[in-house]
Amino acid sequence: MCGVYKKSLLAILLGGILVCNLSAIELTFKLTPSAFFPFLSSGESKYSVLAYGGFADTGVLLNDMFSVGPEFGALFLPKQSADKLEDGHDTMLMLFPFGLHAGVVFYPFSRLALSAGIAGGVCIGSTNGLTHNAPWYRAYAEAAFRINPQWEVALNGSWFDYQYDSYWGNPGAAGLTAGVSV
Question: For residue 54, how far is the Cα from the chain centroid?
Answer without folding.
Answer: 9
